Amino acid sequence: MCGFGGYLGSIRDAEALLARMIAAIAHRGPDEQGKFVTPDAGLGHARLSVIGIGDGQQPMSDVSGNLTIAFNGEIFNYLELREGLIAKGRRFRTSSDTEVILHLYDEMGEDCLPLLNGDFAFAIWDNRRRRMVLARDRMGVRPLFYTNKDGVLYFASEIKALMKVPGVSAEIDPIALDQIFTLWAPIAPRTTFRNIHELEPASVMIATQGQVTVKRYWHLDYRHRDAPSTVTNEDDAAEELQALLTDAVRHRMRADVPVGSYLSGGLDSSLVSALAAGMTPLKLQTFSVTFDSAEHDESAFQTEMASALGTHHRTIACHAGDIAGVFPEVIRFAERPIIRTAPAPLYQLSGLVRQAGLKVVLTGEGADEVFAGYDVFKEARVRRFCGRQPASRIRPQLFRRLYPYLPGLQQQSVEYLAAFFGAGNTALDDPLFSHRPRFKTTAAAKIFFSGDLRATLKGYDAAEDLVSQLPQAFSLWHPLHQAQYLETRFLLPGYILSSQGDRMAMAHGIEGRFPFLDPRLVAFAARLPPEMKLKGLVEKHILRKAAKHLVPTPIRERTKQPYRAPDASSFVGAGELDYVRDCLSEASIAAGGLFNAKAVANLHEKCRTQPVSGFRDNAAFVGILSTQLWQRNFTGQEVGAARAA
Q: What is d(CA 320, CA 606) in angstroms, rounded to the nearest whole number?
């Protein structure tokens, strides 16, 4: 894992610029730094040494000097690829996975990308063809951003590095802000920063002087909803799943340094930890975050799993006020506003891993998207059930079963449940059927937008923009697969793997690895019939079956409890920090120009004086505060609402 930056074009003081860019993201690679400069292109690199510690320095050139790479991430099947290349007569000078990419690219060009099983972003300067090649992994684990300034293409692992380019400044993109307040994240290639773009997952950019092309080299796909499944035997499927996951974990244990594991107390991280524990010669080191709030805490399950595996287990407690204490840093590293506080405890957790002396951890992220674990999938099924009999008073009661961890919901009437979840109110053929309630509830927080921002947006609809991004075959898929696609293609890379994943871990120089996002496992899960993933209202059915002899029954059979953290309550009350008051003051909000100062003042007072449990107010409070912090951190001042892009 590392960070890199570079450019294509002719610039002055290239060495100094690269040094500034890499210094801005040195947290991603605290072990070494390197630079490569030619009259037409340059690459800089900050290294976190994990594989090929003694000989994996970057930027790395091939023996001819015609190809030079700056690489962030890991290629987990590099040993197999290396053996194949050696059999073809290729000779290696290092033991690193980086050199494998150079040889593959030399043989195949960008057509080598589908061969790579890994989490990666890289830039290759191809001197023979006078082109820069930028590429990103299938699922969007590792970030890559770019911008054009005065005819020069600049790119980097984080936007902080691009801010070091003369003439590049931070200006908020109001469309991106609207997308965050609806979809939780911008739709790539858009970012919060106007004129700075994100290379989309599974994409490759070919850039020459004067021409840039971007194309996708992989697509998430599902079979036609009426096509017979190629997977029919559940026992065989569970056995194949366990074998695939075991191999995915084995590949992700490859490192020249110890590998630990996050342990949330849920099925996914427990299963990954159980497999990893059997593959390490020493005690597996596991890490968890605990909460004072019983609503959020899963420490009992974490302790049970750690005890069952005999791991060396460490925890970090997230106490009242801790989230507020680290939140400005969270936004600085996330580089975008967020509407939930969940990244903050993970920022603390990665700090615990760094304190323990580790650089690499496995996580269970991705299982809920790949095997249909989220409540949104069950909720959509119940809503379709209610939609077939919209007058029923019995069917809406099923919503209570979906959210046992939300006590307030259990007390609501049938009429409230039906109205809140939109039972029978959304057309069954709506492509966003599964996610309409979430988007509607989140978008309600936009009531706090200022009049100027509303005028700038001119009625823009982020949800309909999302519809325009869907593939042609989307309408032909089973409803569960449609819902899975929305989660996997957009929220997973845009929020889970970014704001909660890479950015929080790499803030402390920690590399997260995601066995459930192994491309073989993703392809296998896409072939499974829906009922093997969501059986009735039991999520991840096939995964539970595969975990039968690996995870204790109480953890294997427990209902999914999504990872959450206290939101507005983290910032108000006794000991409220000065920056919270300053950011949410009427003067500061008015100066920022993005929100209604009086309405925000009322929201702040409401959160101070009474418990706020509604999603709208929590999302609005966190979203507004994080936007104010974003402006202060990246623009240096509160700025007025920007014009529409």
A: 19
Compute the half-sphere exposure of residue 313: CA atoms within 13 Å on the CB side of its CA.
23
Q: What angle do CA 217, 136, 156 make, to 5 degrees?
A: 145
DSSP string, 480-518: HHHHHHHIIIIIIIIIITIIIIIHHHHTTT-EEE-GGG-
Query: Would you say residue 351 has pLDDT above 50?
Result: yes
**C-alpha R_g of the chain:** 24
pLDDT, tens digit, 9 for 90 and up, residues 386-414: 767 665 655 656 666 666 666 666 666 65
267: closest CA among 564, 563, 534, 557?
557
CB distance 135 to 113 below 8 Å: yes
Smallest Cα–Cα separation from 483: which of 442, 517, 534, 444? Answer: 534
Q: Is 218 left (phi over 0), alpha (psi -120 to 50) or beta?
A: beta
Task: Assess contact for 360 and 353: CB atoms under 8 A.
Answer: no
How many Cα neighbours within 13 Å face the side chain of 18?
Answer: 24
Please, what's the largest Cα pairwise distance for the chain?
A: 73
Query: What value does the mean pLDDT of the chain take?
Result: 93
Query: Mind listing the pLDDT tens digit for each residue in 281-330?
Result: 889 999 999 999 888 999 999 999 999 999 999 999 999 899 999 999 99
Q: What are the residues whose beta carbons fall under 8 Å from the beta carbon of 321, sequence distance 6 or more?
A: 570, 575, 577
**Residues 484-503: b if buried by 16+ CB within 10 A, e if exposed:** bbbbbbbbbbbbbbbbbbbb
By the 8 A CB rule, do 342 and 496 touch? no
Sort residue 167 into left (φ over 0), alpha (ψ -120 to 50) or beta: left
Single-letter amino acid code for the residue at 94: T
* CA distance linking residue 304 with residue 190, whole number of Å: 43
Q: Using the structure block, give the residue that is written with the tokens 């983290």.
A: 570
Rounded to 5°, the CA angle 43-47-48 comes to 155
Give me the sign of the Cα torsion angle 256, 257, 258, 264. Answer: negative
- This prediction has a pTM of 0.94
CA 467, distance to chain mean position in Å, is 20
Question: Which tokens go with 515?
Answer: 């066995």
At residue 333, what is the residue type?
Answer: F
**Strand ranges (E), 403-544:** 511-513
Tokens of 214: 């971007």
The whole-angstrom separation of Cα 19 and Cα 44 is 7
The Cα 618–Cα 604 span in angstroms is 10
Cα-to-chain-centroid distance, residue 195: 22
Nearest to 550 by CA among 270, 238, 195, 341: 270
